Amino acid sequence: MIPAPYRVRSRRPDRADTVTLTLEPVEGTCPPFLPGQFTMLYAPGVGEIPISVSGHARSGGYVQTVRAVGPVSRALCRARRGDIVGVRGPFGTHWELSRARGMDVVVAAGGLGLAPLRPVIRELVAHGARYGRISLIAGTRTPATLIYPRELARWGRDLDVQVTVDHPDRTWTGPTGLITKLVARIVFDPGRTYAFVCGPELMMRATAGELLRRGVPAGRIALSLERNMKCGIGRCGHCQLGPLFTCLDGPVLTYDRVAALLEVRQL
Ligand SMILES: Cc1cc2nc3c(=O)[nH]c(=O)nc-3n(C[C@H](O)[C@H](O)[C@H](O)COP(=O)(O)OP(=O)(O)OC[C@H]3O[C@@H](n4cnc5c(N)ncnc54)[C@H](O)[C@@H]3O)c2cc1C
Ligand code: FES
Predict the structure, then answer these.
(1) Considering only CA atoms, which of 166, 179, 55 is closest in space to residue 108?
(2) Which of 88, 90, 118, 265 could form a disulfide with 40 if both were Cys (CB 3.0 to 4.6 A apart)?
(3) For residues 51 and 41, is the Cβ–Cβ distance under 8 A?
(4) Is 30's C-beta closer than 6 angstroms to any atom of ligand 1?
(5) How far is the CA of 140 from the centre of ligand 2 (A)?
(6) Do 146 and 163 form a contact (C-beta atoms < 8 A)?
(7) Pick from 168, 182, 140, 195: which is nearest to 18 by CA?
């Protein structure tokens, strides 16, 4: 599958190592995406990596947030307005918001996990009346690594938003420590709660464990598994996790299906 050329319409630096790009197809329209899906983004001459779609731009096109951690993500973060990148997709399973209708909702994000959850949060803000109590909890290393700080402040007008940091600085007045501490602080009815969880695997396991302890069934805890991927379409086996190909069967899966598999090391 050949990547389609997309033009960088805008580039917003979010943090020292993180940028949000708005990408528009050079020709035609971009295929619709469902919250939680990802595209394979190609930095010309460098390589291709999976990146979640964080939103639709008003003008059409995808909004995608990239953190520079290695060669390809660094090249994408360096892209300037007008540059061309390649896009395949969107691929993968999605956050099933319809299953959360009428229920209390917990959204838990660790670090960059906020990016794949952004479309979920925007839907919850826009249509809060369709759901019960809505809590958004987020954890990050330091105040300086928190992405979308302005949006978090805006979302806080409609949702119960709580952020914790591992290492506070002098400006930080909020909670500190693990996100699991926040699970204990938020109000929800476990018997009628749906949870969306995304972040590093250790964080997701700990958060899912805490939600289970509070009585949320494993089948109503959705996680996004960011295993290393190459093809994104079920051909290479790179993303295999037990019987699952996380590019096809995931990235979004419920905890009952993956709890036992999360011990498996990445290829
Ligand atoms: C479904 C999916 C959605 C993703 N969404 C986003 C997103 O919205 N924004 C974003 O910045 N990143 C996202 N990632 C992670 C991103 O794909 C990796 O950071 C990227 O592949 C790194 O490639 P690289 O060439 O820049 O660095 P590499 O040299 O390949 O890796 C640099 C370092 O990052 C680690 N790494 C590589 N891939 C992953 C991964 N999948 N998870 C955790 N650590 C990894 C490597 O082990 C290594 O330590 C997503 C991954 C998946 C599978
Ligand atoms: S990334 Fe190739 S099979 Fe999933």
Answers:
(1) 179
(2) 88
(3) yes
(4) no
(5) 29
(6) yes
(7) 140
